[in-house]
Design brief:
308 residues; alpha+beta; DNA Primase, Chain A; Dna Topoisomerase Vi A Subunit, Chain: A, domain 2; 3 domains; five-stranded antiparallel sheet; zinc ion binding
Amino acid sequence: MNIEQANGIAMTEILRKLGYYPVREKGDELWYLSPLRDEKTASFKVHTGKNVWYDFGAGRGGDVIKFACNYLVSGNDGSAVSAALKWLQAFDTYTYTTVTYAKREPDPAERGFQVLKASELKYRILTNFIESRGIPLELAQEFLKEVLVRNNRTGWQFRAIGLYTEAEGFEIRTEDLKASVGAKSISFIRGTELPAKEIHVFEGMMDFLSAFAQHEKQHFEGDVIVLNSVSLAPQAVPYITNYRNYKKLTTWLDNDEAGRDATKYFKELAVNESIEFEAMNDLYAPYKDVNDWHVQTLKSKPPSTPKP
């Protein structure tokens, strides 16, 4: 990687992978809590059009390389350009040709919640909930974040499980809550095969992780779309039709009326696109969804005998 290539990596993507998300947005300007120092009021600005940043609290800014050097200094990892280039290689990911949605203003209900910080999933109440659904913690930590959420109407803050969405928001879960932060949107997860030849469609995050766990925690070779609601099925269509390498579409939707209707919807899409289609419903019938089936299979397994 050279300097020009490094400066082409989106600052928003770097910050997202570091666990930082915009606190507010104004046109091309996104405001974050600074990743370079501790602060309570967002003063770190990213201009998405120019792909540059400025930390008003520290009085410095620049391009991607400049950010990497400053970030490595804050973590005592060295600040030379060569070190920055090596560090940035982790953010230079394979890019698909997908659809870009025009940003819209969230409706009043969506503005109710705001993510203040995203970090590794560790909060005991959340990890207990994850494990109660049969999901190994190390697996959940690979795909989910622990997000600190503020209810803007009440000022109340709480922790939740978060799955990043294509609208640059989160689908959040607690034991008692299912909600969205930002515009309601699907989540897209890349598989290990490049280019991918198969696309899997799940309704929710727990279903995806359950199938993953049943798959002996081996990554899917194909790509994955988590709908986060069957009503968002149309959002998935451009991701499937605009990417011409898919040869198979596999659905893992619920065994209820809404799930059956969505399965039919994707089957018709596969026929129209002349790609193979498979619905996995028989695998987890008579249970309502993949997660229910997964939990029951774990309960039916005989307990392991400790080794002498």
